[in-house]
Write a structure and sequence with these properties.
By secondary structure, the chain is mainly β. The protein folds into 4 domains: 213 residues, no CATH class; 184 residues, Immunoglobulin-like (Sandwich); 175 residues, no CATH class; 82 residues, Sandwich (Immunoglobulin-like), CATH 2.60.40.3080. Helices cover 1% and strands 41% of the residues. The chain contains 1 helix and 49 strands. The strands form 11 sheets. Strands 30, 31, 32, 33, 34, 35, 36, 37, 38, 39, 40, 41 and 42 form a 13-stranded mixed sheet that branches. Strands 4, 7, 8, 9, 10, 13, 14 and 16 form an 8-stranded antiparallel sheet that branches. A 5-stranded antiparallel sheet has the order 1-2-3-12-11, with no helix packed on it. A hairpin with a 7-residue loop joins strand 25 and strand 26.
């Protein structure tokens, strides 16, 4: 049995193989060699050629006195050499990888000097030693060169002294800078959005960049940080002729030829084979040197201990050699998905694709992606063209995803280069057509469970099952949870697509179960559950009433804000599964009915959009375990939702994406924060809002 987890990730692709003239003028760099994810500074640049690696730093204070830079390199990412105990002119700072080399640079205007020194880590002596020099370098030698201009520093480091002379050599890189004026110290790290604190206390550089020294990669390529818990990831390849060995080099692999433990009984890399008149099946990859198929997804079990030495090595970065797929890709490459069955496709490009634009042949309009960070426990997020948690149907690079065939005909999808997207999707371009709308119900239990279910209202919606209905799929990792769903024709649904206009009222069964895991069974149990809802995108001619079939209570969703009830034990069902995906079964009678009534279209009003940005009071406050954040967006714009601690340090980014006009809601459920006071900041195109909130753990 497979239990699947997925972390979201995104990659950028571009060719980077450039010779830079080190003159301090900030010239010669391309946009794909430029990074902005650096705390307390403007940009960092990285590129290379056959001889040198080049690093640039753009910072309003880069040319100030008494600033020191420490650049850390791991040149054997799959090996055991190096240390996380950094070489600095101080103590207590650790890197996110085992560094083999460090370049240290310091400029002192008072003394009128600057110098560079290289050190490598002596594993036998457990110490940092000078490399290729008897004393510190000046800042202009054959092995290293530095030039500085106004607000800019530029470095050249010879590859030979870092022992990375081959095109296929891989490097992991991060950087620390510190500066002192009297008693004041300034720090920044790269990559990272928050600077570290005083190095007098234990501090960690949290992230790094990884790249391969050939002409197929930009440093931007390898920004995938797998930093979660042990478990499965659905993946895909963006390149032609890429091998599993290349992509998975930094992960522990077993059970197949070319793996770290070929003799192990259990494989941890699987492909998916379509069934013939039945559900498909998983099969272990026999040889890691095999070529991955563009457009097809596959499954990897990620161990936190990537080198089998007994510790946790996450996060790791993954990259793959080869040229990006340049043409259209069909899934499956041969044959078809049988009627009503699921197929595991994958993004074949380095850029995001928009599933709404994918050509579907007898394939449902819904797409499913697995998210192990989903509120309430790992599970599927989805999109049906207008509703769902998978925002606007955007599929990230290296992402595997499920599609389902309709009930008849040969089924396949074609992913075209035109499907690449930098937008937020297509749904919101149709807001003013008055042909779509939607809402969702949020369920939260007193034992920490959380679930959500969606209803969309479209001109192509049907009372029965249609192509935009999304099944409520069982999680691929069996854990106790709350599960809410509607039902149509014995199908449990996460998204229920209903008509935008209809001649009569519609009654939809709706249920929620508090599920405890016992001996491989999901057992329904009693729990106090509160239902909330977001109807900001519901057209005015549609009214909704939630009917509690047990108590007889009727709740008008336009006039009430929430409803609290207690679930009842009513049986159990098998928590394990034998196929790739499996919808939840219906257990007993549905607790609720959602009653949809339609007014006259000619009397309806357009969806009212807010006239300005706004952040409503966070509720509840103080809170535990979750809080509701509601905000208004008057126009399509990028919105950031960030959390800061009382020191002003950024501790979590909740949202950073384009949003459509309307009222929005975010359920904030901290995972690793301690009890305390925090500041939630909403950053919009022209306004910033801040609220103080207290979290009680």
């Amino acid at each position: 049995m497979l239990r699947v987890l997925l972390l979201f990730f995104s990659f950028l692709y571009a060719t980077s193989y450039t010779t830079i003239t080190v003159n301090g003028t900030n010239s010669g760099w391309s946009s794909d060699e430029t990074f902005t994810d650096v705390s307390d500074a403007d940009n960092v640049y990285i590129t290379w050629d056959a001889t040198n690696i080049y690093v640039g730093i753009s910072d309003a204070e880069a040319d100030y006195n008494n600033i020191a830079y420490f650049m850390y390199f791991d040149t054997d990412p799959t090996g055991s050499n190096g240390t996380t105990d950094t070489y600095t002119w101080g103590n207590n700072i650790t890197t996110p990888f085992s560094a083999d080399y460090v370049l240290a640079f310091k400029y002192n205007s008072t003394e009128g000097s600057a110098y560079i020194e290289f050190r490598d880590y002596d594993d036998s002596g457990s110490s940092w030693s000078q490399t290729g020099q008897t004393s510190s370098y000046t800042y202009n030698t054959d092995n290293a060169q530095m030039a500085g201009g106004t607000d800019y520093l530029e470095f050249k480091i010879k590859r030979s002294i870092l022992n990375v002379t081959n095109a296929t050599d891989k490097i992991r890189f991060c950087m620390l800078a510190e500066q002192q004026w009297g008693s004041y110290w300034r720090y920044f790290v790269f990559p990272g959005s928050s600077a570290i604190g005083n190095r007098g206390a234990s501090q960690s550089i949290a992230a790094y960049k990884s790249f391969t020294l050939n002409n197929k990669f930009s440093p931007n390529l390898s920004t995938l940080h797998i930093n979660g818990s042990v478990g499965f990831r659905l993946m895909s390849t963006p390149v032609s002729n890429g091998t599993y060995t290349d992509l998975l080099a930094e992960l522990w692999t077993q059970g197949m030829t070319g793996s770290d433990a070929a003799g192990a009984a259990d494989d941890n890399v699987w492909g998916f084979t379509l069934g013939s008149g039945a559900a498909g099946s998983w099969s272990g990859v026999s040889n890691l040197s095999a070529t991955m198929t563009p457009g097809a997804g596959f499954l990897v079990y990620v161990f936190t201990d990537t080198d089998n030495d007994g510790d946790n090595d996450l996060p790791v970065n993954l990259s793959v050699s080869g040229s990006e797929n340049s043409g259209n890709v069909t899934y499956p490459a041969s044959g078809s998905i049988d009627a009503s069955q699921y197929g595991l496709a994958g993004n074949p490009y380095y850029t995001t694709i928009d599933f709404d634009d994918v050509t579907r042949n007898n394939v449902e309009a819904t797409v499913y992606v697995y998210d192990d960070a989903k509120s309430g426990g790992a599970g599927y997020i989805n999109w049906n063209g207008s509703s769902g948690d998978l925002t606007n149907g955007l599929i990230a690079p290296f992402q595997g995803f499920w599609v389902q065939a309709t009930g008849s005909g040969s089924a396949s999808i074609q992913i075209q280069t035109a499907d690449k997207s930098t937008s937020s999707g297509t749904f919101y371009r149709m807001l003013d057509t008055e042909e779509i709308g939607g809402m969702h119900l949020d369920f939260a239990s007193d034992n920490g469970g959380y679930s959500k279910t969606w209803f969309s209202y479209r001109s192509d919606g049907e009372v029965g099952k249609d192509s935009r209905d999304a099944h409520r799929l069982m999680p691929l990792m069996a854990t106790s949870r709350l599960a809410a769903m509607s039902f149509v024709e014995d199908n449990s649904l996460d998204i229920n697509n209903l008509p935008f206009d209809h001649g009569s009222d519609i009654h939809v069964p709706l249920d929620v179960m508090s599920l405890q895991l016992e001996d491989g069974q999901y057992v329904t149990s009693a729990a106090e559950v509160t239902i909330g809802w977001d109807i900001s995108q519901l057209p005015d001619h549609i009214d909704l009433t939630l009917i509690d079939e047990l108590t007889g209570e009727h709740i008008d969703l336009r006039h009430e804000l929430s409803y609290t009830f207690t679930t009842e034990p009513k049986g159990s069902f098998n928590a394990d599964y034998d196929t790739e995906v499996s919808p939840y079964p219906q257990v007993g009678e549905s607790r609720f009915t959602l009653h949809t009534s339609y007014g006259a279209l000619d009397n309806k009003h357009e969806v009212v959009l807010p006239g300005s940005y706004a952040l409503d009071p966070i509720y509840p406050n103080p809170f535990n375990p979750r809080a509701t954040v509601r905000f208004d967006v008057p126009e399509v714009s990028r919105v950031e939702l960030e959390v800061y601690d009382i020191t002003g340090s950024l501790v979590e980014t909740l949202l950073d994406e384009k949003m459509v006009p309307g009222g929005h809601q975010y359920i904030w459920e901290p995972k690793s924060l301690s009890t305390g006071v925090y500041f939630l900041r909403l950053i919009t195109a022209n306004q910033t809002f801040t609220q103080k909130v207290t979290y009680v753990k």
